[in-house]
Write a structure and sequence with these properties.
single chain, alpha/beta, D-Maltodextrin-Binding Protein, domain 2, 9-stranded mixed sheet, 4-stranded antiparallel sheet, elongated, disordered N terminus
Length: 322
């Protein structure tokens, strides 16, 4: 017995202790010539193994079995992704889903900050660098071959403890707080208490985005008295743990432990960030050294796919499409 699938195929007949195999050329359902048969004595185990292997190879090669599911790759791959802690939740969840759809593929994701992501992509330490800010002019000059891929939108929220009665700050008031000129909450509508300023480290994309809007226009710097944290998560924990603290972090990290305030009367909402009505907004990037190779492109394509952009929304960021 045999089954023909396309214009050329392998067929086999399994007898009690023998295996017959051959090939048939045919047009339609009619073989054009009788197959040449070989007869060999084989054990049942060997026969069964050969049977499975031949049928599988035959069906895959002929197109009777489709081994390309949507969103999957034909081969396992290995990627290193690192950089911005803002992009980290997107990269981690997309990597998890991608690997689940592509058994054998390995995608290692870590943080380190935007500057690390840019440099690591440039020197080949990682395949894909993550950044939550635009590349600096100095980085573009040093690494002219880097290519950026926008994968999401985000806003930098100004956050305080939920018990703080302040609900809105102007850019000028915020600048006064972060330069150390304003040190008491009563000067901006709050209670009589010293302000604890929390900032990100130098090289952070979130800090760069904040500085570009709040401090760069007057070329001022963050006060030396600020408490420095090296991730969005640590910033959130610090602000949540002190009633008089203020910090800035990615909108995607805002939860019930803290409260975001309005800036110049505009709340940091998805709609206001997408329309750029909210002052501190940005694009989140994945970066490759030159044009992406096949594996890098496959992962970036997944992040930008409908499923990938659903993940962007699920982790509280803003899709680049719609």
């Amino acid at each position: 017995m045999y089954k023909l699938c396309n214009v050329y195929n392998i067929y086999i007949f399994l007898g009690k202790n023998y295996i017959y195999s051959g090939c048939a050329h045919y047009r339609g359902d009619i073989p054009m010539e009788k197959p040449h048969r070989t007869r060999r004595f084989l054990s049942r185990t060997v026969v069964a193994t050969l049977l499975i292997a031949v049928i599988t190879a035959s069906l895959l090669g002929s197109g009777c079995i489709d081994n390309k599911d949507a969103g999957t790759q034909e081969h396992a791959m290995k990627l290193q992704v690192a950089g911005s802690t803002t992009v980290l939740p997107i990269a981690e969840e997309c990597a998890r889903v991608f690997m689940a759809n592509n058994p054998g593929s390995l995608i290692y994701v870590s943080g380190g900050g935007s500057s690390h992501g840019v440099k690591a992509a440039a020197d080949g330490t990682v395949n894909i660098g993550d950044a939550s800010r635009d590349m600096l002019d100095s980085e573009k000059a040093s690494y002219p071959d880097l290519v950026t891929h926008g994968i999401a939108k985000d806003g930098v929220a100004i956050v305080i403890h939920p018990s703080n009665r302040v609900s809105d700050l102007t850019i000028e008031q915020l600048k006064g707080i972060y330069t150390g000129k304003t040190t008491n909450w009563k000067d901006v509508g709050g209670e009589d208490a010293e302000i604890m300023v929390v900032s990100r480290e130098e090289g952070s994309g979130t800090r760069d985005c904040f500085e570009q809007v709040v401090l760069a226009p007057t070329k001022e710097e963050i006060t030396a008295n600020a408490i420095i944290q090296d991730s969005n998560g640590k910033t959130r924990t610090t602000v949540a743990g002190n009633e008089h603290a203020i910090g800035f972090l990615s909108l995607g990290y805002v939860n019930s432990d803290i409260r975001a305030v309005s800036l110049d009367g505009t709340e940091p909402t998805i709609e206001n960030i997408r329309s750029e009505d909210y002052a501190i907004s940005r694009t989140l990037w994945m970066i490759t050294d030159g044009a992406p190779d096949a594996d890098e492109q496959a992962f970036i394509d997944f992040v930008l796919s409908e499923k990938g952009q659903e993940i962007v929304s699920e982790v509280h960021f803003i899709p680049v499409s719609g």
